[in-house]
Structure formats: structure tokens, C-alpha cells
Amino acid sequence: MEIVIGKTFKNTTVNLDFSTYDKCSFINCTIHSDYGIFRLANNDFTHCKLSLGQPARNIAYLVKQFSEKRS
After folding, report:
1. How many domains are there within the chain?
2. Which of the residues 19, 41, 56, 67 could staple to 52 if both were Cys, CB 3.0 to 4.6 A apart?
3. How far apart are CA 71 and CA 56, in angstroms?
């Protein structure tokens, strides 16, 4: 697993899968994950959008189902 610490990403697509991001800044980026296998800690996201592949979309759907039941 790649470990990225303290890096700034601007105007790019970042694939999170199989990586750890710590203390990074993401500015105007597309944040992508196919599998949801990553670690994020202490990061800043500014004007970013999220892109999910089908396996990650399945997990997002499951999380949404749980959060709607608790509302």
C-alpha cells in the first residue's frame, strides 16, 4: 500500500484505492475509488467531486441505507 503524506493535489483525478493519504490537500480534484480500499487521515478537500466505481457504489448504497434508517 502506497503512503502519501503532506502532498497537495490540484486540478487532477486522484485514485484512492490501495493507498494511505495523511495530511494531504486536495483542491479542485476528482476523488475516485473503485474498491473503497484506502485510508484517509487529517486531509483537506476543497471544491472536489467524488467518483465511485461499482464496488464502491455498492458500499455507498449500503451506508446510505443504514443512515436513512437512523434519521
Report:
1. 1
2. 56
3. 23
Amino acid letter for position 1: M
Cell (9 digits) for 50: 467524488
Instruction: Describe the strand order of the beta sheet including 8-10 as a list of residue ranges.
Output: 8-10, 25-27, 44-46
**Grid cell listed for 60:** 455507498
pTM of this prediction? 0.87
Alpha helices in the chain (DSSP H): 54-70
Longest dimension (CA), the chain: 37
Residues 8-52 pLDDT 10s: 999 999 999 999 999 999 999 999 999 999 999 999 999 999 999
CA distances to 50, 51, 59, 70 from 33, rounded to whole Å, are 8, 7, 11, 26
Tell me the residue type at 35: Y
Structural domain including 6 reads: 2-70
